[in-house]
């Protein structure tokens, strides 16, 4: 497998502030790769370093084997799509798309031909002669995509490109973006703080926090097997309980749950003592064989799901999710219920 972008021990400081603390990542060619993390974790900084808009303080970034610092900006096989589209307001849609090709020195008829093909790809051929102001936000974002793809970059950097769109459009664009990446075979590096966006589109996700990469893996890897507390909490919804850990061996731990029941579950390599146990709310059922006893405080109707907010005997809050279609009876506030942890519900985390 070819590596498109190789990031090796990259540190970036702004004055006395360190935005990236030694980040290493290997991004495969033809992949949809997402940098995911909360605001300020360094995602955009890393993207700007890959684009060559900023220089690394130390470490190295290679694009298809070449050190980026040695590549002239116009020879870097990279293009960027920004959150605010950055279209030229006085140019028509097709001229916007053809702009980068003109810069590359392509002749007029080849330019219009290529730009026309790009507009077809993003389903905007009918609007080629309009000005950006005459388009909706979603259409403008598609023009920005077509413009960035026109010069056939090997790597496309996308900085929160969907954040200005409303929810329905964002959901539709996720599918389109993934399709576009698959059709073109271009490596997409996508920045977002939205975990659902990351989970739905990405082949690989790097979860970042405070200038460090916490975990790299597929959507399933990071959801099912988060390596630490930060990742478990950031990706999806989870219950985090402080439990006593008695034994850890060969990736499994034996712990005592609140209420006294023992549990053996997959575990990060931790030493015995107190650690956080993550329990996913959708992997818990109400009924016999209970691992935990809880008192129902509130039932929240979420359409396809019901969220049941409960409290355990030791006072910790505990949430479960039931599928609305599958439910037989709804627990009532004040009721004491038994909670059964399904296989794969619990995982012991490193701090
Ligand atoms: N030019 C700069 N000078 C000083 N500090 C900067 C500069 N650029 C970024 N930073 C700081 O570096 C940190 C990381 O910023 P960055 O924009 O990479 O975060 P982010 O994860 O992309 O966040 P967001 O999702 O809010 O855009 C922030 O604390 C930011 O204030």
Overview of the structural elements:
With 351 residues, the protein is of the alpha+beta class. It has 2 domains: 3-225, 3-Layer(aba) Sandwich (Rossmann fold); 237-348, Beta Barrel (OB fold (Dihydrolipoamide Acetyltransferase, E2P)). The chain contains 8 helices and 20 strands. It has helices spanning 43-51, 93-103, 108-121, 137-149, 167-184, 195-201, 219-224, 229-234; strands spanning 3-14, 17-28, 32-36, 58-63, 66-67, 78-81, 155-159, 187-192, 204-209, 212-217, 239-249, 252-256, 262-266, 273-279, 284-286, 292-301, 305-312, 317-323, 336-341, 346-348. A 6-stranded mixed β-sheet has the order 6-7-8-3-9-10, sandwiched between helices. Helix 2 crosses helix 3 (108-121) and helix 2 packs parallel to helix 4 (137-149). It binds adenosine-5'-triphosphate (ATP). Adenosine-5'-triphosphate binds at residues 14, 17, 19, 37, 39-45, 193. Belongs to the ABC transporter superfamily. Spermidine/putrescine importer (TC 3.A.1.11.1) family.
């Amino acid at each position: 497998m070819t590596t498109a972008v190789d990031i090796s021990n990259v540190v970036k400081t702004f004055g006395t502030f360190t935005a990236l603390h030694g980040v290493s990542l290997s991004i495969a060619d033809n992949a949809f790769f997402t940098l995911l993390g909360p605001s300020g974790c360094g995602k955009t900084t890393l993207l700007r370093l890959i684009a060559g808009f900023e220089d690394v303080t130390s470490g190295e970034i290679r694009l298809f084997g070449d050190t980026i610092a040695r590549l002239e900006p116009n020879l870097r096989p990279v293009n960027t799509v920004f959150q605010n589209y950055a279209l030229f307001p006085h140019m028509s849609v097709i001229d916007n798309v053809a702009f980068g090709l003109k810069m590359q020195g392509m002749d007029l008829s080849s330019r219009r031909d290529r730009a026309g093909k790009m507009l077809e790809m993003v389903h905007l051929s009918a609007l080629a002669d309009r000005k950006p102001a005459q388009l909706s936000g979603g259409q403008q974002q598609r023009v920005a995509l077509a413009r960035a793809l026109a010069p056939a970059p090997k790597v496309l950097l996308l900085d929160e490109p969907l954040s200005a769109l409303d929810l329905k459009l964002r959901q539709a664009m996720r599918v389109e973006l993934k399709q576009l990446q698959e059709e073109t075979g271009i490596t997409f590096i996508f920045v977002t703080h939205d975990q659902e966006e990351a989970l739905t589109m990405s082949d690989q996700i790097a979860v970042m926090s405070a200038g460090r990469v916490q975990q790299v893996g597929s959507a399933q890897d990071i959801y099912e097997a988060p390596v630490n507390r930060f990742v478990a909490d950031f990706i999806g919804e989870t219950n985090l309980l402080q439990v006593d850990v008695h034994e850890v061996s060969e990736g499994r731990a034996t712990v005592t749950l609140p209420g006294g029941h023992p549990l053996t579950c997959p575990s990060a390599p931790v030493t015995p003592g107190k650690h956080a146990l993550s329990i996913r709310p959708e992997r818990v059922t109400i009924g016999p064989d209970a691992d935990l006893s809880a008192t129902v405080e509130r039932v929240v109707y979420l359409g396809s799901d019901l969220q049941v907010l409960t409290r355990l005997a030791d006072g910790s809050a505990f949430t479960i999710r039931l599928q609305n279609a599958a439910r037989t009876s709804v627990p009532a506030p004040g009721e004491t219920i038994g909670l059964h942890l399904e296989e794969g519900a619990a995982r012991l985390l490193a701090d």
